Amino acid sequence: MRKDEMTADIAIVGGGLVGLTLAIACAAAEFSVVVVDREVPANAADDAFDGRGSAIAWGSAQVLKGLGLWDDLAPHAGAIDDIRVSDGDSLLFLHYDHRSVGDHPLGYIIENRFTRRALYKRVAAMPRIRLLAPMQASLLAQDATTATLALAGGGQITARLVVACDGRGSAVREQAGIGVTRWDYAQTAIVASFTHAKPHRGIAHERFLPAGPFAVLPLPDAPDGRHQSSLVWTERRDLVPAMLALPDDEFAAEIAERFGPGLGRIAATGRRWSYPLGVVLADRYVAGRVALAGDAAHGVHPIAGQGLNMGLRDVAALAECLVDAARLGLDPASSLALERYERWRRFDNLSLLAVTDVLNRLFSNDIAPLRLVRDLGLGLVEQIPPLKRLFMRHAMGVVGDLPRLVRGEKL
After folding, report:
1. Structure pTM?
2. Which sign does the torsion angle of CA 95, 96, 99, 101 carry?
3. Do β-strands 33-36 and 203-209 pair in parallel, antiparallel, or remain unpaired?
4. What is the DSSP code string of 150-175?
5. Kind and range of the H or E element at 214?
6. Contact yes or no for 287/162 (Cβ under 8 A)
7. Neighbours of 1 (CB within 10 A)
8. Is the dihedral of CA 77, 82, 87, 90 positive or negative?
9. How many degrees, rounded to 5, is the angle at CA 289 between CA 287 and CA 293?
10. Taken in order 150, 155, 157, 163, is the CA torsion positive or negative?
11. What is the pLDDT along the chain (411 residues), one digit of tens a residue?
12. Nearest C-alpha neighbor of 188 from the set 301, 297, 282
């Protein structure tokens, strides 16, 4: 074996939130793992790299706890105790109260920068993981027993399984010959954090406006005691540059105009980011010894905050399929294991994609008959407790055929 050649059980291309979580899950199950990522870790963990906060459903939090990440995440996790869904200024709304389904939060909001730092810390403590970053890799070849990645600048990795976690524009997915369905929403998400005079009381707000959903999500108080929330504001793409360029006081006024007085005086703080919105769905999740996970397999509208949760369930399901095959003495990347993963996750992800797409199209307009129908729908669900509890459990990520990690069990 030459010095520029490496072998591993699993090679993961993409060291983002999903890729690193998968590496930790696989290494905990005693697989050797190489992760190849194009970003400099110090840059990716910096405050300026990614302004988003991610909704972590209760089931996804169990995955993170099971992988030993939660102690580092808990101080930065804003508990979602209630969710309030409203349609503009309509008097009808939908209210999810965590007390109706358990004695724990529905989920959490955690800024991605803190999650990245916790992942890097855990990876550094696991000798079975080798992180190559910054580095780029491409799929070179597959045969009956291995897949090979070529590294930029020379060298290669031979693994029993390659997992593409390299995002919506996945190069490995394309190199494996997996097609995608995609469409654009002509919407852009404005992401920022802001402070406010009144406490949020753990309530996540999703207010549907004609341009798209306007979400205000609870964050822990700042170190100086100021109350703060995360903003995900979906707006018409042509209006976004002007919104991003507003002075802080005018930007805060725009937030207050859309949200109302519930949080008291609002102050815009820090940087703003913007992300164009669209959908990506891979035609399949497996091609030979290549599997897709996270945004390489599916990218959805953030309307229900399910994007990262879908990826974490991919992680839990794929790790379980690999572990179960190995325990039976089978090749963990056998067609039996990978086809089980694809069947398990693709239907769930396709269903969630369809729901988010329909919700966005239904609510992102100001057509009077549609407003009446959707407002009556919100009011009806509010009055049917069993149906509301079912929707709440879906939001918590605890409905359906759940992987062991999501159930809070060992892998």
Report:
1. 0.95
2. positive
3. unpaired
4. EETTS-EEEEEEEEE-S-TT-HHHHH
5. strand 212-218
6. no
7. 7
8. negative
9. 70
10. negative
11. 444 789 999 999 999 999 999 999 999 999 999 999 999 999 998 888 888 899 999 999 999 999 999 999 999 999 999 999 998 888 778 999 999 888 999 999 999 999 999 999 999 999 999 999 999 999 999 999 999 999 998 999 999 999 999 999 999 999 999 999 999 999 999 999 999 999 999 999 999 999 999 999 999 999 999 999 999 999 999 999 999 999 999 999 999 999 999 999 999 988 999 999 999 999 999 999 999 999 999 999 998 888 999 999 999 999 999 999 999 999 988 999 999 999 999 999 999 899 899 888 888 888 888 888 888 888 888 888 888 898 889 889 998 899 999 999 999
12. 301
Q: Which helix (H) or strand (E) holds 73?
A: helix 70-73
Length of the chain: 411
Q: Which residues contact 207 (CB under 8 A, 6 or more apart)?
A: 85, 86, 87, 88, 213, 214, 215, 216, 258, 259
Residue 213: asked if its preceding bond is cis (omega within 30°), the reply is: no
Domains and CATH numbers, the chain: 5-182+279-396 (3.50.50.60), 186-278 (3.30.9.10)
Output the six-digit token pair for 266: 């609002």
